[in-house]
Amino acid sequence: MGKIRQKIGTTKEELLNSQGKYDEAIQAYDKAIQLDPNYAKAWSNKGMALVNMGKLDEAIQAFDKAIWIDPSLAEAWYHKVNTLDKLGRHEEANKVLGEAIQLEIWISYISANLISSM
Questions:
Q1: pLDDT of residue 116 exceeding 60
Q2: Where are the beta strands (DSSP E) in 2-114?
Q3: Are 97 and 85 in contact (CB under 8 A)?
């Protein structure tokens, strides 16, 4: 079930999030996580919905869970660094950025996003 879920993505959840329906999006992410607790992308996307709601500390916990499950999930690292920065936790953000760079995750994510935005 988890592999199928990962292939189809979190379309409903992402749509709710993009429409500003953050509470509904979080409920949908929680349901996906309940079905597959190791679904790293759902944890990361839940983190973004929490950021959008201003629940930054909770968002960091979601990003941490995503990174713990899948250390190669670059978007979780990226959003964690940005969220730490928003909280004014700059030293911690720099430390996390350094960890991501050591894992060579950050560079591939940034490169892919720069290329796709051109």
A1: no
A2: none
A3: no
